[in-house]
Amino acid sequence: MTTRESQRFHTLRERIAASPDAILVLVVLVIFMDMMIYGLLIPVFPEYAPRLGVDESVLGVVFGVYAAMLFLFSIPMGLLSDRVGRRPLIVVGMFLLAGATALFGFSTSVTHLFIARMVQGVSAAATWSAGLALLADITDPSRLGERMGIALSAVGLGTVLGPVVGGLLFEYLGYVATFLIPAAVVATVGLLVLAVPVRSCKREGDRERAGMLPRGALLPLAACAATTVAVSGTYGVLDPYLPVYLHAAFSASPATIGLVFAVLAIAAAIAQPTAGRIYDRYGGSRYLIGGGLLLSGTAIFAAMQAPTLPLVAAAILVLGVTLSSALVPMMPIMAGIYRDQDSQGVAYGIYNTFFSIGLALGPFAGAALLGHYPLPAIFLLQAGVLGVMGVLGCLLIGRLGWR
């Protein structure tokens, strides 16, 4: 490479480092890969029961281990990203995810599944905490809802392709290829992040001693926790148990199950930037959050009453929109709580912790209830909880002073 070419390459890298749009693309790509691998397992999991000689409740616990690791490591990863920068945590997270995905490909026991899922959860704690904090660092607060909505749409896109890719790879290339091919793609993304310079905030001096709980933040954080746990808990039940329900009630194949989850994810991917844009311009958190939770409960109730698979898919589509409406406002609200402390890593580490609690409660609660109640009853109970929380949200959010 000549001196002139080297200068051009250096200039290009600096432009990428300084570009909010380029950073948004980078964060979207990282989140997309994490969720694609998460969704990759969904259509394959029903096959594990006969393959490994375990029942569905054990598979639910495997799903919950991911959330447990996310819970344990999100705040430490957020704190670490505030001190050492965002990119090192993102790169490490990508390489951990590649290793965990490859391990799934060679798993021959439930123990292997547990280990791979644990590493996957640690990876998510690093990439999500650092990635969302990086986005908050470089985004104007007046546009943060929309930008976070776009980033979260990567969750939907990853969840769309994950189950579809997982189902197709499993049916046509076999078990090992289902995981080794995506593992190679994730490692490539990690190398890309390593090659791109990223400018982000790094806390120094007295800022390192900022508290975890800003003054007057207890009640707003409690409301954020309740909303985020409600949404993620819904996904925590749907991800392991909706495939089992669809297989039992409609004899759905892995590919068909993947398509139903694709409907959910596409709806979320479209709704999330829209919800963020609405919040940025008009506020309306009472209606977005409270109404979103209430309508989510209604959508789950409708899905359990639907006599055909297409009607179930229609209810799931509505659910993707309503869950997104409730979740997206949490992102700028969390950023606002911690903005004065310049500690966005802590903010999104705490957000991830809230999210992981719901992801863990869903599978573990489902596993505990499966021994006593059928799956439809569990989903109806979940619908009732969402409905009650939605009504409470509509009544109480105005008192918090949220837009």
From TrEMBL:
One of its GO terms (cellular component) is membrane. It comes from Methanoculleus bourgensis (strain ATCC 43281 / DSM 3045 / OCM 15 / MS2). GO terms for molecular function: transmembrane transporter activity. Pfam families: MFS_1. Keywords: Membrane, Transmembrane, Transmembrane helix, Transport. It is a multi-pass membrane protein. This is Major facilitator transporter. PROSITE patterns: MFS, SUGAR_TRANSPORT_1. SUPFAM superfamilies: MFS general substrate transporter. It is found in: Membrane. Residues 23-401 form the Major facilitator superfamily (MFS) profile domain. InterPro entries: MFS, MFS_dom, MFS_trans_sf, MFS_Vesicular_Transporter, Sugar_transporter_CS, Tet-R_TetA/multi-R_MdtG-like. Its main location: membrane. The chain crosses the membrane at residues 21-45, 57-77, 89-108, 114-136, 148-170, 176-196, 217-238, 244-267, 287-306, 312-338, 350-371, 377-398. Coiled coil: none annotated.
